[in-house]
Amino acid sequence: MKWSAEGPSRTTRTPAHNIVVPSTATDFPPDSSSSQLFGLLISESIKNKIISFTNQRLEMTREKYKRRNKPELKNIDALELDAFIGLLIFSAVFKSNDEDINALFATDGTGRDIFRAVMSKERFAMILLSLRFDDASTRDQRKQTDVATAIADIFSEFIANCQKYYKIGETTTIDEMLVSFR
Hints:
The protein is mainly alpha-helical. The chain is 45% helix and 2% strand. Strands 1-2 form a two-stranded antiparallel sheet.
């Protein structure tokens, strides 16, 4: 490789193997909301599986309580799952993803108000504890063939959605470094 203070010569033609041609990307309306675009990657099918498996776990947890109608033990629905995912993203964006739940929900002015506005601390903790991505009753037999069986089905669907809707470009940054590719 030869480094130069001047740019490349424009008198010679760029070799074809050095030209990156972007693949055709799915066109989205310019007024698409971020939640609509996020919904392409985390599809309704993925959400429904998470809701179903999480509700199975919540049902098992409810059996351990005398008072089974506590608000934090109720089944999760699509709206609440979206809210929960939103809080997790919010905590990551503001670098609070390693904070204690008590600190996030603190009422002394140090906590984040949005957490308390969306759901109670007890409900957040219960969803976090009960969140499941597969059917636990069949996990043992599936684990014999796939060590990542707890997330494999949803993960493969997520990867398929990423490949379908996200097209990598020539200026993509991966983990804060540029990786050359053709």
